[in-house]
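Homework help board

Subject: predicted structure for assignment chain

Our instructor gave us this sequence and asked us to write out the predicted structure in token form, then describe one feature. I got the tokens but I'm not sure how to describe them. Can anyone check?
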Amino acid sequence: LIGQFAATAGKKAGEFYTPQQLSSILSGIVTLDTQDPKSGMKKKLERVLDFACGSGSLLLNVRHRMKANGGNIGKIYGQEKNITTYNLARMNMLLHGVKDSEFEIHHGDSLLNDWDMLNEMNPAKKVEFDAIVANPPFSYRWEPTEEMGKDFRFNNYGLAPKSAADFAFLLHGFHFLKQDGTMVIILPHGVLFRGGAEERIRTKLLKDGNIDAVIGLPANLFFSTGIPVCILVLKKCKKSDDVLFINASDKENFEKGKRQNKLRTKDIDKIIDTYKQRKEEERYSRPVSMDEIERNGYNLNISRYVSIAKEDVKIDLLQVNKKLIELESKIADASERHNKFLAELGLPLITKAKRD
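My token output:
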């Protein structure tokens, strides 16, 4: 019902709803590491957070996938600034059979960090999460203060610019991620290459080995905006030394619609499997070394590393010239025979100038 309403709500839909196809990608990635390789048993995600949860669709998707795979979640946590959407999220939890002891939704502003549970100054008592998923407002304008620069979430990185709080949202969530946890966040492409404060934050995250993967998606997936978005996968202790780039924006990797594009089940599964296996595929994915990223000035523009452009067909000019000469010879022979017939009929002959 919420999905149907979002489809007709225009730009307002972006305030509370993440399309299920995108939710499936995020939930698929954060639940990949929940199987114990030794015993084969599914581990439990004790805590899952969405700090810009809207109607709670992302959290419910993670919970559903865990249960479908035989795993379980201890408790899901969400935060939402809009009071109406906050109430919608709580109602959505109950309608999906989530007990009130299994979830906690807070009404508040994540950037101000006004949730007492997360605003603990004592590092020993800090609440951390096994998985964090988020689809925060794109390029949200905010008003960072000088005091905020000392905030424990931002003081090691610096503040995101006023014009775009994308990295402020990212750093907020990343601060509360467990050492062995996974964070997956949807952001506009600008975070991959913009300069200034965002470049400094991006560079530090890369140097610290915290960005695990960058996934580019097609345009027109959202109800509220037509811009293409990317997914960043972050870890505090990642296994690989490279960054996996997936460029899923080619027309072969989605279904084009009149007003909105759609990722099919096979497209979603391919993204998740490629991330899991860290596979390299021409015009689709490639693990990129930190040396190469450094040479590119820590610019993460996906097309620099995985281009979907097809190579131009190579033309053998000598062969083309040979064919042209052959054609000219055939034309000359045909014209000569034709002129013989014209001469017999007493008609004017065709000269090369007339033929051209």
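Reply (TA_rk): Your tokens look well-formed. For the description, you could write something like this. Residues 242 and 295 are 14 Å apart (CA to CA). That's the kind of observation they're looking for.
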